[in-house]
Amino acid sequence: MSLKIFLPPLVVALCGLLAGPASGAGPGPDAYEAIVLQSPDFLVHHPDLRFRRLALDARERGRDDEARTQFRNAARYGDKLSQAALADLLWNGQGGPADRALGYAWMDLAAERGTEWLVVQRERYWQAPLADERARGARRPRAVRRVRRPGGLATAGA
């Protein structure tokens, strides 16, 4: 057989091998992304993620009161996961007194984009409280909705 038949597929195969990442060539894209997302230079420009990271660190240390404060800081920047975490802390009375109405209000805000598991959790909260808590929770979202906007003030509810 002629070399002309084998050469093109061989060249294509070799180019494919050379184009792929070398084994041991450093962290993959996911590892690199994680490093960048946790770097101080990145977090200084993303306060929602910075406060969420501080809250998660506080939770790991068993400092629910500090976590509650940091999740509130992140939640005021519109971070939906932090809003849900703050709602959970408030609902369960972790890191401070329980406030189920305010917990519901934060969960309502967290679920406003229709994220399925947040909507489900909001509905669980809605089914649980007493009638007076329900009425209070329905009124609180207006106070909670005043979240930090670029150049704005943070005036969200406790």
Radius of gyration: 24 Å
Largest sheet: none
Percent strand: under 5%
The residue-averaged pLDDT reads 77
Q: How many structural domains in the coordinates?
A: 1
As residue ranges, the low-confidence spans are 149-158
Distance between the termini: 80 Å
**Shape annotation:** globular
Please count the helical segments: 10
State the share of residues found in helices, binned by percent. Answer: 55-70%
β-strand number: 0
Give the H and E element order. Answer: HHHHHHHHHH
Structural class: mainly alpha
Organism: Stenotrophomonas maltophilia
Protein name: Sel1 repeat family protein
Keywords: Signal
Signal peptide: 1-24
Short description:
With 158 residues, the chain is mostly helical. It is built from ten helices and no strands.
Report on the architecture of this protein:
- Helices cover 67% and strands 0% of the residues.
- It has helices spanning 3-19, 29-38, 40-43, 47-60, 64-75, 80-92, 100-110, 116-127, 131-139, 141-144.
- It is mainly α.
- It has 10 helices and no strands.
- The protein is globular and about 65 Å long.
- It has one domain (29-144).
- The protein starts with a helix and ends in a 14-residue tail after the last helix.
- Helix 4 packs antiparallel against helix 5 and helix 5 (64-75) runs antiparallel to helix 6 (80-92).
- Keywords: Signal.
- InterPro entries: TPR-like_helical_dom_sf.
